[in-house]
Amino acid sequence: MANYFVGDIHGCYRELIKLLDKVNFKFGSDILWITGDMLLRGPESVKVLRYIKNLGNSSRIVLGNHEITTINLFYNFFKKKSIFCFKKEGEKNKDYYTDVQKIFLENDSEDLMDWLKNQSILQMDMKKKIIMIHAGVHPYWNLEETISYAKEIEFILQNKTDLLQNLVGFNHSYKWEKRKFKDLYERIKFNINVFTKMRYCYQDGSLNMSIKDDYQKIKNQDHIRPWFLFDRKISQKYSIIFGHWSSLDKRCVQKNKNLYPIDTGCCWGKKLTILRWEDRKHFDEPCRRRKTPS
């Protein structure tokens, strides 16, 4: 049995299948770990979702920001037959919501969304000392806090989807305030951003959500650092595998012990990457189409 970790797929179905063929993925014995953002931006989101859903116990999934946004739109707007006309703040791709609607209009959309909302925010293998998340783990959280915060978000997704519109839509909860952490929903708003959107942190624990470039390119920004360059509370014995940050120079990050970023920007015309855990070998499949980041 082998464990394979794949970066953000974003609807790039053909590249995913080609890559799984390349590594000779064995359904029923091998495990495919998926860093989230399986859908949108690429051309075949529904095919990706159906394929991964059919993997059953041969997959381990965490949700990314695109899944959580999609779940919110489906249950709080589409199913309620609200006017499906939104403008996602900061989203320059004007086709974004057209792509979402295409998913919702499929005959099996409700089954897919029900399956999706029951997936995890955090995946762990305590024996192998593996942690997988979409964007990151806050450096000021210990392991017990990280597990607890992930479970809180999962409970909302699985049982209280009506609350998502207040937790996800225009979520500007970036500032670390201990007093807010006593309030369940304020805590969840902040933690959704940590698990699914975080790149840079300030020394006080707050998040900078505007900078997306690789940290090697950032000049005169000593007051912020990538989340993984802080002294973390979780033991260095744990390896952290994450996606979300396609502009990150993976070679620089891998110099830091037990960090494995594997979003290599397939939806932006770059490549899709799989990491085979047993020998730490990477496999790539080039994008079959060209797209310029917007």
From TrEMBL:
Entry-linked InterPro entries: Ap4A_hydrolase, ApaH, Calcineurin-like_PHP, Metallo-depent_PP-like
Single biological process term from Gene Ontology: RNA decapping
Organism superkingdom: Bacteria
Pfam families: Metallophos
Record's keyword terms, sorted: Hydrolase
Catalytic activity: P(1),P(4)-bis(5'-adenosyl) tetraphosphate + H2O = 2 ADP + 2 H(+)
Listed EC numbers: 3.6.1.41
Domain spans labelled Calcineurin-like phosphoesterase: 5-154
Keyword Hydrolase: yes
Keyword Hydrolase belongs to the record: yes
Coiled-coil boundaries: none
GO MF, one example: phosphatase activity
CC per GO annotation: cytoplasm
PANTHER family, A to Z: BIS(5'-NUCLEOSYL)-TETRAPHOSPHATASE [SYMMETRICAL], METALLOPHOSPHOESTERASE
Family: Belongs to the Ap4A hydrolase family.
Stored NCBIfam families: apaH (TIGR00668), PRK00166.1 (NF001204)
Function: Hydrolyzes diadenosine 5',5'''-P1,P4-tetraphosphate to yield ADP.
Name by which UniProt lists this protein: bis(5'-nucleosyl)-tetraphosphatase (symmetrical)
Source species of the chain: Riesia pediculicola (strain USDA)
Organism phylogeny: Bacteria, Pseudomonadati, Pseudomonadota, Gammaproteobacteria, Enterobacterales
